[in-house]
Amino acid sequence: MPSTPTAPGRSRPDLVSSLTTVFKQLATIKPKEARATVGLDIGSSAIKVLVLGSRRGGSSRPVIAQNLVPLEGGQDADASEAIKAAIKTLQLPTKSINLSVSGQWVIMRIV
To answer: Residues 20, 63: contact at Cβ < 8 Å?
Structure first.
């Protein structure tokens, strides 16, 4: 049976021990919580934007700001101008947005 290759100058137990240590350190890294989370809901009748603050001491996240912009013309309306208006008035503290689009025929692609 062929032996498993190891890094030059290291025995197999040393390599396994080093890798185990690295994986334990990676598993204990806690991701930073965002200062603010922005949610954007594109509905058939309105655009809704909600900004949530950071969680403090296990409590729920406070609502920092919210905006609702009705869409003229229902489903046939161009939502881009309403989205721009909703976001512009809030002066968002982040560039990352959580997006919700509902509907029977919605197709999403990450860009």
So the answer is: no
